[in-house]
Design brief:
binds adenosine-5'-diphosphate, 6-stranded mixed sheet, binds magnesium ion
């Protein structure tokens, strides 16, 4: 089989020390291959966002190892990590994280330009990504001139542009109505079908149903993995962890 796009091995993340110690993740193993979309579910505080930020190289593990396309993140210096993040990882934040001083198209083009793509090509890619999201009209608008749902879709377009192999999304459908939410899931699904690996945090069983597998976190531990083809047990388990 091919090298997994994402591999988490015995991953732990502890915040603070002594009585204030919080075990956000307690030894999580997870492998995601090209073509797979994995949904992460679990109650608030169970470690879902921690898992995603670690997998995206945005936070440092306390223990264990993260490999992206076979490359252990612990073997990279800051510059190498930043380059790998820009090139291989698309990240959709829970609160969008658009840069307020840049337009929608500029927000999408920026990581590409940082990676050496010529300005004009990066702009063309950005406009195409916006069109794919049904958002061509917001290309030259600033974040504060867009609705929450538009900002969220711009953030998703930014994560998907440039053929990144690993797409990580933290509740990407949070601010979206259900129709737009389905559009976003269809795009994530399509990107994975085209060879990316995706990990998405969601509270909604109807969105999780787009994934190939659902993993459930509780208190920093991965308690179960379910194939979404087994929908009945998925829904039963989702109800139990909400
Ligand atoms: P979820 O996304 O599932 O709601 P998180 O990954 O955000 O959960 O948080 C997991 C646990 O780690 C929670 O108990 C949270 O309070 C704690 N935590 C997260 N980030 C920090 C931090 N920077 N400092 C201290 N505790 C944190
Ligand atoms: Mg969270």
């Amino acid at each position: 089989m091919s090298t997994p796009v994402l591999e988490l091995r015995a991953l732990t993340r502890t915040h603070g020390s002594g009585v204030a110690e919080v075990h956000a993740l307690r030894g999580v193993d997870l492998t995601v291959r090209a073509g797979e979309l994995v949904a992460v579910m679990g109650p608030s505080g169970s470690g879902k966002s921690t898992l995603l930020t670690l997998a995206g190289g945005l936070d440092t593990a306390t223990g264990g190892e993260i490999l992206i396309e076979g490359q252990p993140l612990s073997g990279l210096d800051r510059k190498g990590l930043a380059a790998l993040r820009r090139r291989s990882v698309g990240y959709v934040f829970q609160d969008y994280n658009l840069i307020p001083a840049l337009t929608a198209a500029e927000n999408i083009a920026l990581p590409r330009e940082l990676d050496g793509v010529p300005v004009r090509k990066a702009r063309e890619e950005a406009v195409a990504a916006l069109e794919e999201m049904g958002l061509a009209e917001v290309a030259d608008r600033f974040p504060d001139e867009m609705s929450g749902g538009q900002q969220q879709r711009v953030a998703i377009a930014r994560a998907l542009v440039g053929d990144r192999r690993l797409v990580l999304a933290d509740e990407p459908t949070g601010a979206l109505d259900s129709e737009t939410g389905e559009t976003v899931l269809a795009m994530l699904r399509g990107r994975c079908d085209a060879g990316a690996a995706g990990v998405m945090v969601t509270h909604e069983p109807r969105y999780a149903a787009w994934a190939d597998r659902v993993v459930f976190l509780r208190d920093g531990t991965l308690i179960d993995q379910t194939l979404t083809s087994d929908a009945d047990s998925l829904l039963a388990t989702a109800e139990g962890t909400r």
